[in-house]
Design brief:
single chain, alpha/beta, six-stranded parallel β-sheet, about 45% helix, globular, binds uridine-5'-diphosphate-xylopyranose
C-alpha cells in the first residue's frame, strides 16, 4: 500500500487495522517492521497520500477499492488443523464490508488464500448486498521480505484475477490502471479469479521445491564428497533450470512457503487428489529433514554430546535483512540443541530477545538461553559457532579473535554456506558447511 501511495499521487491510500498499537507505530518514527527502503517511502508520503487509522468504518465507506490484507495462518483447530488456511479474519473482513459499505466496491484479495475463497467472499457480500454491487478480484503479492521495496518497484509481474463478465473486466481494468502508473503494461497479467489464486500457491510451492531439491542433493554431496554449491552452479547455468533459489541451506523458513504448501496439500486432498497432495507434501518433509539433520550432525560431530556445552548461534531471522522469525530454521535447530541440554547463546542484528524467547517457548529467566549484543559476546567460551542466517556482517567478523576466545576444538557449522571454510580451517576451526563432503 505504501508503494501505491508513493507512486500514485492522485490516489489516497488509507491503511486500517483493529490494532491501535500497530497503527500508532505506523504513525510514529519507529515503524513496526524492518524492511530496507520502507522508512523513506512511508515517511515521504505519510499524511499526503498514505494514512494509517483505526477508523475502519469510515475508510470502508470512502474507498472505491478495498484490499483485504489480513493474515491467513495455518489452522490450529478443527477440520484441516495443521494444514488448511484459517479464514476467520477474511470472513470477518467481508462481513464488515457488507455491514458498512454504502455504495459499490471493488474488493481485492491481497492475502494468500485457498482457491475458490473469492467465491465465499462474494457470497457473504452478495447475501448482504442491499442493492450494492461488489466485484471480487484476486491480486496476490509476490514480494519477498528484505527486498520488498525493489520487488514492488520492479515486479516480474503483477497478477490480477477477476470475473470474466463486463463488470468483472471493468473492475480488473480499474486495478490495472493503478499498477500501470509504474509497472509496464505487459508485466500486468490478468486471468480469471481461480487461476490467480492458484498461481500464488503454485509459485511458492515451486520456489520451495527448488530449495528442497537442492537440500536433498546436499545430503548426497556430504556422503559422496561433492560440493553442493558447485553442483548448484553447474546445473544453474542450464538456462532451462536457471541459477536462482538453488542455495542449499539449513532449511527454508518464512511465513509463506510452509503455510502455502500445506494449504495446497489440503486443497488437493479436498478435491480427491491424494497423489498430488503427497507429491507436494514431500517438499515440506524434505525441509523438516534438513533442519533436523543439521542438529544431528552438530551433536555427532561434537563427540555425541552437547550437554552443558555453550553453543553460539549467529542469526535467528529466517533470512537476512529482516527481523521476521516466522518458521525460521534457527528455531528448530535451537530447540533440538536445548533438548540435548546445550547452553545456547544467540546473536541476531535485528531480532529482539523477547521474540527469540517467544519462538523458543522459554521464559525470560530461563538460563539455558542467553541473548547477546554482538557476535563476540555470543561466541566467547563457546564450544561451537553456528551460522543460521546469512547476514552480511557475519562475513566481516574477526574469526581469529573468535577462535581465540573459544573452547578447543573450536567447531563451526555454517548452515548458510556463507563463510570461507578453508580460511577458517587455517585459523584452527573444525569447520563444516552444508553439502560439502570431504573428498
Ligand atoms: C517468499 C517468496 O519468495 C515470495 O515471492 C512470496 O511472496 C512470499 O514468500 P519470503 O518468504 O519473503 O518470500 O522469502 P524468500 O526469499 O523466498 O526465502 C524463503 C526462505 O527460503 C528463507 O528462509 C531463505 O533463506 C530460504 N532460501 C531461499 C534458501 O534456503 N535457498 C534459496 O536459494 C533461497
Amino acid at each position: 500500500m505504501a508503494m501505491i501511495a508513493h507512486k500514485c499521487k492522485d490516489h489516497a491510500v488509507t491503511v486500517v487495522d483493529i490494532n491501535q498499537a500497530r497503527i500508532d507505530a505506523w504513525n510514529s518514527d519507529e515503524l513496526p517492521i524492518f524492511e530496507p527502503g520502507l522508512d523513506e517511502i512511508v515517511k515521504g508520503c505519510r499524511g499526503k497520500t498514505l494514512f494509517f487509522s483505526t477508523d475502519i468504518d469510515t475508510a470502508i465507506r470512502e474507498a472505491d477499492i478495498i484490499f483485504m490484507s489480513v493474515n491467513t495462518p495455518t489452522k490450529t483447530y478443527g477440520v484441516g488443523a495443521g494444514r488448511a488456511a484459517d479464514l476467520r479474519y477474511i470472513e470477518k473482513c467481508a462481513r464488515k464490508i457488507a455491514e458498512v459499505a454504502e455504495d459499490d466496491k471493488i474488493v481485492v484479495e491481497k492475502s494468500t488464500l485457498p482457491v475458490r475463497t473469492a467465491e465465499s467472499i462474494k457470497r457473504i457480500l452478495e447475501s448482504n448486498s442491499k442493492g450494492r454491487k461488489f466485484q471480487i478480484l484476486s491480486n496476490p503479492e509476490f514480494l519477498a521480505e528484505g527486498t520488498a521495496v525493489t520487488d514492488l518497484e520492479n515486479p516480474d509481474r503483477v497478477l490480477i484475477g477477476g470475473d470474466q463478465t463486463p463488470d468483472g473486466l471493468a473492475a480488473i481494468q480499474k486495478l490495472v490502471d493503478v499498477y500501470a502508473t509504474w509497472v509496464p503494461r505487459e508485466n500486468i497479467l490478468t486471468t480469471n479469479v481461480w487461476s490467480s489464486e492458484l498461481s500464488k500457491l503454485t509459485a511458492n510451492a515451486f520456489l520451495a521445491q527448488r530449495i528442497s531439491s537442492i537440500n536433498a542433493i546436499s545430503a548426497l554431496c556430504e556422503a559422496t564428497g561433492a560440493n553442493v554449491d558447485e553442483v548448484a552452479h553447474a546445473i544453474g547455468t542450464d538456462s532451462r533450470i536457471g541459477p536462482k533459489f538453488l542455495k542449499s541451506s539449513v532449511g527454508f523458513g518464512g511465513s509463506c512457503f510452509q503455510k502455502d504448501i500445506l494449504n495446497l496439500v489440503y486443497l488437493c486432498e479436498h478435491f480427491g487428489l491424494p497423489d498430488v497432495a503427497a507429491y507436494w507434501n514431500g517438499v515440506i518433509e524434505m525441509n523438516d529433514y534438513q533442519k533436523h539433520r543439521f542438529g544431528r550432525r552438530i551433536i555427532s560431530t561434537m563427540f555425541n554430546t552437547v550437554s552443558d556445552k555453550k553453543i553460539a548461534v549467529l542469526g535467528f531471522a529466517f533470512k537476512k535483512d529482516t527481523n521476521d522469525t516466522r518458521e525460521s530454521a534457527a528455531i528448530y535447530v535451537c530447540k533440538d540443541l536445548l533438548e540435548e541440554q546445550a547452553q545456547v547463546s544467540i546473536y541476531d542484528p535485528k531480532v529482539t530477545e523477547a521474540q527469540m524467547r517467544r519462538d523458543l517457548g522459554i521464559s525470560e529467566d530461563d538460563p539455558s538461553v542467553t541473548v547477546c549484543a554482538d557476535a563476540y559476546e555470543a561466541t566467547k567460551d563457546a564450544h561451537a559457532v553456528l551460522i543460521l542466517t546469512e547476514w552480511d556482517e557475519f562475513k566481516a567478523l574477526d574469526f581469529k579473535k573468535i577462535h581465540d576466545s573459544m573452547n578447543l576444538p573450536a567447531f563451526l557449522f555454517d548452515g548458510r554456506n556463507l563463510l570461507d571454510l578453508d580460511a577458517l580451517r587455517k585459523i584452527g576451526f573444525e569447520a563444516s558447511g552444508i553439502g560439502r563432503g570431504e573428498a
